[in-house]
Backbone:
């Protein structure tokens, strides 16, 4: 993904703005890692679990009439996992210490999610435009004319009586 360096920069800036963050990961909604800054955590596993949690969160929001998914917050004994919508096809997952200011986490997470979403959506749009403008390679089918049987005078047998 061409925007990966920009997304990684955004994740690092986010970790600077919120020092209690222990990791940040951008992933597609189907669980593929787009970019990550998650020392000590296996990013593919977190992305896959995020996709699973996102599926449940989207269904829960829909079933309760709460509208389109925006964010999900999980609090464990040692800290938080926060997931934010990042455009139409990505999510931002943040790992934070228990002492994080949750209001600040939400503020910065939402802002970063918006920026990452813009990067991802712009790249998807650029790819779609490029695919649309790409010349279509046409190939002509090579066919062979049907063979006709050859009948020559020497092949024809006639009997005289």
Residues:
């Amino acid at each position: 993904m061409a925007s990966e360096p920009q997304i990684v920069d955004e994740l690092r800036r986010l970790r600077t703005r919120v020092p209690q963050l222990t990791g940040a990961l951008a992933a597609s909604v189907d669980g593929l890692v787009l970019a990550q800054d998650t020392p000590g955590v296996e990013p593919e596993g977190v992305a896959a679990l995020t996709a699973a949690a996102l599926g449940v969160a989207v269904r829960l929001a829909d079933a309760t009439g709460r509208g389109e998914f925006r964010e999900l917050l999980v609090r464990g004994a040692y800290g938080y996992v926060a997931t934010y919508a990042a455009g139409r096809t990505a999510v931002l997952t943040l790992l934070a210490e228990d002492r994080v200011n949750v209001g600040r986490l939400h503020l910065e997470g939402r802002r970063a999610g918006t920026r990452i979403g813009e990067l991802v959506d712009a790249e998807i749009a650029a790819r779609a435009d490029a695919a649309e403008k790409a010349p279509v390679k046409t190939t002509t089918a090579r066919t062979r004319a049907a063979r006709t049987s050859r009948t020559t005078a020497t092949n024809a047998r006639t009997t005289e009586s």
